């Protein structure tokens, strides 16, 4: 075992020296000076890594180069650069890294975010697009309206439990869309399973395990990664197969047949017909439902929206005015109202931009050496866009929550650069396939929430509003830390609307 360890270390040193010498011959982008062997490992801080990366721009510019154990990392801090490389040159910037920890050791290589670019990737995208396109996801609008009715009633009754209510809504909606299953409360085992899956899979994919940089280390026993991966691998089969088995045992309801799995696996009579695709579909469903349900977009975005509204009563007032003019106070908004509620759309886009629910998106891997702006970008580089939506050349005063910025008339090219939908759901061929579903559900939640409630800060004993701190949890997903606020229905008509909508369930 000692001989194996020494051989692995020596071989790794050889690779690092070879790559370091090659690096000196290339016109690489600037970046912080690393240390021998480990490179810039110490610069890749675990806690809110995106903040440290954002600070490099002043010193190094829009393209920053780092290396860790011989692997190249290229960080993009400019919206135009990210668009040029990840959108326009997507044919060579759409691969994913081979993650020894998550893919091999934990047994999650079939997850959609880890699929390498090639035939399998294209087949997955074709299947997902057939069910998750902008026109196709309309089939789930009734489910979105139903889950939001439950959310409104729960928020009216116990607003202090806002995070639990949003999580339940997002989890139930994801289960309904993927499998046609109605969650049984906040402690539903499938909702809890999705939360556990997202927590564990995110950790194994993003922590930066040493074995991901030096794969030979996977053979060394009694290491942290061996212990953790063995525990995770034992649970993966249950995470994948349990919801799939549940789906097959459900009665053939309209919800089941119209679900993601139903449309891809069942025939017109509700019988399991596409057996060849079942293995692929159950992994796709887990990937999408895990992301939808707990940590990805909905929970973080809605929580960020509420926090922003507490700080900006002027935005709440303007939204109320628009909703009253278009919708009135005797009904809830519908999807038919969407085009007539432009300010609600501005609030949604500004929340995505300001809050940036996923500041550390998965890296794209460059499939061949590329030249850009006089720099050489090495083959195999991890190309990672960071803080694009806080680019001061595109968004003035980016730390300010200002929905009106999306009402401004700008040049069409600048308008494309300013649209957060080009960034927050991923880039190019790796864009999240559930973007249309997420946008519909989040828009409807914001519209109905602001129709029914007034959001304001808690007033202290000195009669002074106590604004909650703008603080966020550490990690891949930017959840606000728990905060207090005052939530009150907009008069008796709003209460009647909430009770009426929930009574129809």
TrEMBL record:
UniProt main location, coarse: membrane
Gene3D superfamilies: Cytochrome P450
Keywords (A to Z) from UniProt: Heme, Iron, Membrane, Metal-binding, Monooxygenase, Oxidoreductase, Transmembrane, Transmembrane helix
Cofactor: heme
InterPro entries in the cross-refs: Cyt_P450, Cyt_P450_CS, Cyt_P450_E_grp-I, Cyt_P450_sf, Cytochrome_P450_fung
Chain positions recorded as heme binding sites: 432
Molecular-function GO term, any one: heme binding
PROSITE patterns, per database record: CYTOCHROME_P450
UniProt pathway annotation: Secondary metabolite biosynthesis
Localisation: Membrane
Bilayer topology: Single-pass membrane protein
Entry's Gene Ontology cellular component terms: membrane
Family label: Belongs to the cytochrome P450 family.
Protein name: Cytochrome P450
Source species of the chain: Phlebiopsis gigantea (strain 11061_1 CR5-6)
């Amino acid at each position: 075992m000692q001989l194996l360890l020494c051989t692995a270390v020596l071989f790794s040193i050889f690779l690092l020296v070879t790559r370091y010498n090659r690096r000196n011959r290339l016109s690489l982008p600037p970046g912080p000076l690393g240390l021998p062997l480990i490179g810039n490992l110490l610069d890749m801080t675990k806690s809110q890594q995106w903040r440290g990366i954002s600070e490099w721009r002043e010193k190094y510019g829009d393209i920053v180069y780092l290396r860790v154990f011989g692997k190249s990392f290229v960080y993009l801090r400019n919206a135009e650069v990210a668009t040029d490389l990840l959108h326009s040159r997507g044919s060579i910037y759409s691969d994913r890294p081979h993650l020894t920890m998550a893919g091999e050791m934990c047994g999650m290589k079939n997850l959609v975010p880890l699929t390498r670019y090639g035939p399998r990737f294209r087949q997955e995208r074709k299947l997902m697009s057939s069910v998750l396109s902008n026109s196709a996801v309309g089939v789930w609008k009734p489910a979105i309206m139903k889950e939001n009715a439950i959310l409104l009633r729960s928020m009216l009754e116990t607003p202090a439990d806002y995070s639990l209510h949003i999580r339940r809504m997002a989890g139930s909606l994801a289960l309904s869309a993927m499998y046609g299953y109605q969650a049984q409360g906040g402690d539903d085992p499938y909702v809890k399973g999705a939360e556990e899956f997202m927590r564990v899979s995110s950790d194994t994919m993003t922590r930066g395990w040493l074995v991901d940089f030096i794969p030979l280390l996977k053979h060394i026993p009694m290491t942290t990664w061996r212990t953790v991966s063995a525990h995770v691998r034992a649970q993966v089969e249950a995470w994948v197969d349990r919801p799939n088995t549940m789906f097959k045992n459900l009665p053939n309801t309209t919800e089941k047949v119209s679900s993601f799995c139903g449309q891809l696996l069942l025939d017109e009579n509700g019988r399991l017909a596409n057996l060849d695709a079942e293995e692929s579909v159950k992994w796709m469903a887990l990937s999408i439902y895990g992301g939808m349900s707990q940590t990805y977009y909905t929970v973080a975005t809605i929580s960020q929206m509420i926090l922003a509204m507490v700080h900006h009563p002027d935005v709440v007032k303007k939204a109320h005015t628009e909703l009253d003019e278009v919708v009135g106070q005797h009904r809830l908004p519908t999807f038919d109202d969407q085009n007539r509620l432009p300010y609600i759309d501005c609030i949604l886009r500004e929340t995505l931009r300001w809050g940036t629910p996923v500041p550390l998106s998965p890296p794209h891997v460059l499939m061949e050496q590329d030249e850009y702006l006089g720099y050489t970008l090495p083959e195999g580089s991890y190309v990672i866009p960071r803080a694009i939506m806080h680019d001061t050349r595109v968004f003035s005063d980016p730390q300010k929550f200002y929905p009106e910025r999306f009402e401004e008339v700008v040049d069409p090219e600048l308008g494309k650069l300013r649209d957060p939908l080009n960034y927050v759901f991923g880039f190019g061929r790796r864009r999240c396939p559930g973007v249309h579903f997420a946008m519909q559900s989040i828009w409807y939640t914001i519209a109905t929430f602001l129709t029914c409630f007034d959001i304001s800060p808690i007033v202290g004993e000195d009669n002074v509003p106590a604004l909650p701190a703008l603080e966020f949890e550490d990690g891949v997903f930017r959840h606000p830390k728990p905060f207090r606020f005052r939530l009150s229905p907009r008069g008796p008509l709003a209460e009647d609307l909430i009770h009426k909508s929930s009574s129809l369930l």
